[in-house]
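Case study 2.
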Amino acid sequence: MTTQDALETGIDPHITARAGVGSVPGDLAGAPLLTGRERQVLVLIGGAAGNRVIARRLGIAERTVKAHLSSIMGKLGVSSRLEAALFAYAHHELICPAGQCPLGHLPKVQ
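Prediction:
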């Protein structure tokens, strides 16, 4: 994604540059499509939590976590849980606004 592309989609180009967008799977344009619950699930996946842990932490069923993960993967254009986790880690500031993160903020990717 170029700086111009980022500006046109409303995504902060500083975030995309710092995250090394070329090396991270996924489509940044899908991030704004995520629901609040999908963002919570994605951040927990980025923190290496398993489905059972995510379900307990959010008070939902494991099958619901799986449904959210499937939806997240479709919206972000990733094909595996690992790719979703990498996306979550690299774009943490984009998917998890300050003060609204279930894990606290992760270190910035350099």
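Confidence is low (pLDDT under 50) at residues 13-21, 106-110.
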